[in-house]
Design goal:
This protein is of the alpha/beta class and 590 residues long. The protein is 38% helix and 15% strand.
């Protein structure tokens, strides 16, 4: 591996390790010289010359003994000391990060030095550990920390930002500071990426980036989502202006449509409150605004400043669409599309794919690793195992791993999963749960089944999993349920997602007679995204399942629980603009 320039801390530690190795080598050579026959013969001749009397008499005997020993190898004497192994670069850089103050991040997140606009910073914060650079301290920070990536966005050059007009000859100081950052990154083998998300001086793209991506960081679902749509106040229609102070079309002003700028802080709330969003058709931000409106559950109508010969007028389409809420099926399908294709983790993974990261970099496959799901299953027989394989292999979001008891590893369905490339892990149990034990545990725990041997088995399965999320499989999910669960968790930041608890009497052992206790999903109402105090969990953080707590205790122990409503089917695929209505598909004229 090529030697790279490192930070000051790494350089000092590497120099110390090299000096130790040189000292050990010098000691070994000195011991070899002192034990050599030539040195011992020279010492004997020198002693005889200094004391000719007695030493000359003993000289022949000493030389004869040296001659006899010269043909023998004694491995037990003066063995050459082995050099202590120099610590690996991976361990050195993790220790250096602690010493240089990059704390608070997780090992599975990339650490990026960022020169980005506020929108990009807010989008990547949950998925990348960022170290912001400013023109006056860029060199100091780059010298003092060890990062995996340099991330720059064109929006950082916007007027009013610390890096305003970077790349412009008139801002030579900022351009020189960023150029030094990129040169330092190149010397240390750190890739540099430019997100070309806004107009910027052309010279910015020529500063020496490893990759220039045309576009932004995708849709940040932790900001744009329909989770709190019923709590967002505002009218049912919103006009999103791509340019501030742009005149509002007269027809929209007459309809009382709310006006919000594309870069406004309250844009997510405005889109959540609206049933329909009107976006300009000829703007470079049209696609970006359309995806954000989809994620918030709003239909999209494009507005062209030039009248079109076909299409429904805004005065007709907007009142008609805002009078009716988008269907749950339509919202789910639009959100799935954004989650799978346009969300920030997907966009970052695509941008970073193929870059030459330094050895020892953790999390190069992130941020998609945060979506990894381990399916915990305890199939009762071949039929259950076959059903498990058929369910998981047809899901739109394939699990990263499946954890089953050791006795189920040889079932045909589990073998099929392994043959299809799914990682299968096994757990050895002393004895399986019997139906009588499961029924007794359910009754003892007030109908949630989280006690006795059953709870221990589920916790043991979760202990074997390595993914951040776990799904306890008890029955077929369908094609979309798993992707909906993971999407809901990413949108809300919840610790567990499932169906709302039915509130059955905990003293009634027949209230939840499921064979697998609290992981059986009862039929619930039509809530879609609602934080509640108790759920029947379908997806939970693996660490939470490992604790072995009853789900009714999770909320009292500080966990955030999100109830996800049922999926009523895929229905018709919405149009490209997010509306199943012909008028919204064809657009409208002003």
């Amino acid at each position: 591996m090529k030697r790279r320039e490192q930070s000051q801390t790494e350089q000092l530690k590497q120099a110390l390790a090299e000096r130790e190795a040189q000292l050990q080598e010098a000691r070994a050579r000195l011991a070899a010289v002192e034990g050599s026959t030539s040195l011992q013969v020279g010492r004997a001749l020198t002693a005889a010359a200094k004391r000719p009397g007695r030493s000359l008499v003993r000289l022949p005997r000493d030389l004869y003994r040296l001659w006899r020993r010269s043909g023998q190898t004694n491995h037990s004497e003066r063995r050459r000391p082995a050099n202590e192994p120099v610590r690996s670069f991976d361990a050195e850089r993790q220790e250096a990060r602690l010493l240089t103050g990059v704390v608070g991040g997780r090992e599975d997140l990339l650490i990026a030095a960022t020169v980005v606009g506020p929108a990009i910073q807010a989008a990547v914060d949950p998925y990348v550990r960022t170290v912001p650079l400013r023109p006056h301290d860029a060199q100091i920070v780059m010298d003092g920390v060890d990062v995996d990536l340099v991330l720059v966005s064109s929006s950082a050059a916007a007027p009013g930002s610390p890096w305003a007009h970077v790349g412009d000859p008139a801002s030579a100081d900022r351009t020189r500071a960023l150029h030094w950052v990129l040169e330092s990154a190149a010397a240390r083998g750190i890739p540099a990426v430019l997100l070309d998300d806004a107009p910027a001086p052309p010279a910015l793209r020529e500063l020496g980036f490893d990759r220039v991506h045309r576009g932004d960081a995708g849709v940040p679902l932790h900001l744009f989502n329909p989770v709190a749509a019923d709590l967002a106040p505002g009218p049912a229609a919103v006009y999103v202006r791509a340019v501030p102070d742009e005149p509002v079309p007269d027809v929209l002003a007459d309809l009382g449509v709310r006006v919000v700028d594309a870069d406004a802080a309250d844009l997510p709330d405005a889109l959540r409150a609206a049933n329909v969003a009107v976006v300009p058709d000829a703007s470079p931000d049209t696609d970006r605004l359309r995806r954000r409106a989809w994620a918030c559950g709003a239909r999209v109508v494009t507005h062209s400043p030039v009248p079109q010969p076909t299409g429904e007028d805004l005065a007709v389409s907007v009142p008609r669409l805002r009078a009716e809420e988008p269907t749950e099926t339509e919202q789910r399908e639009l959100l799935r599309r954004v989650f799978l294709d346009e969300a920030t983790p997907v966009r970052l993974s695509s941008v970073l794919d193929g870059l030459d990261f330094a050895s020892g970099t953790s999390g190069t496959d992130l941020p998609l690793r945060g979506r990894s799901v381990a399916v915990l299953a305890d199939p009762a027989g071949e039929a259950d195992a076959d059903q498990l394989a058929a369910d998981l292999l047809t899901a739109r979001l394939r699990p990263a791993e499946v954890v089953v008891p050791g006795t189920a590893a040889k079932l045909p369905g589990v073998k099929r999963l392994r043959a299809e490339g799914v990682t299968v892990r096994t757990v050895r149990f002393s004895a399986p749960d019997t139906p009588e034990e499961l029924t007794r545990d359910t009754a003892r725990d007030g109908g949630d089944g989280h006690g006795g041997l059953s709870a221990q088995r589920w916790a043991a399965l979760a202990e074997r999993a390595t993914s951040p999320w776990a799904h306890p499989w008890t029955r077929p999910l369908g094609d979309h349920r798993l992707v909906d669960l993971v999407c809901a968790a990413e949108c809300s930041g919840a610790d567990a997602v499932g169906t709302a608890d039915t509130g059955a009497d905990p003293d009634d052992p027949l209230a939840n007679p499921g064979e697998r206790g609290f992981f059986d999903r009862p039929t619930t109402g039509g809530q879609q995204y609602e934080f509640v105090s108790a759920i029947t969990p379908e997806l939970a953080r693996t660490e939470l399942l490992r604790r072995g707590w009853r789900p009714r205790e999770w909320n009292r122990r500080g966990s955030r629980l999100l109830a996800l409503g049922p999926d009523h089917g895929t229905g018709a695929d919405p149009g490209d603009d997010g509306s199943s209505h012909t008028a919204a598909q064809t657009g409208a004229v002003g």
